[in-house]
Amino acid sequence: MNRFIQIICYLSLVFCSGSVIASDFDGSKPLVCAIVEVLDCGLLDRCERVNPELVNLPDIFWMDIKKKEMKGGDRTTKIQQVTHEEESVILQGTTGNGRGWSVLLSENTGKFTGAVAGVEFGFLVFGSCAVD
Question: What gap in Å lies between CA 87 and CA 109, rounded to an integer?
């Protein structure tokens, strides 16, 4: 996807997220999310900022917490656990190839932080969601 289009999508998500109420991010409505930043961390290396494509993550993805699934690119990932805690929704699952992941979504802002963990590496992911 063209970087200009990605920036426009992200900006529209940020502006849209300010006009919705907190309950829009509690898992009751489908969301479209944009990854803003990815940090790639090795076992003995420092973390470095990378493009999502470099670590096989989509720039834009859709999250349907009610259906317990996330879709991005040509992949669908099942959400195996959903926990609500202190104005956050915590989602967890596995990738099917030896990796685990976790996402914390703010019910107030739609912003999220996620982590993907492998045996000797990990990714930290930051972004924002809006009601789809």
Answer: 10
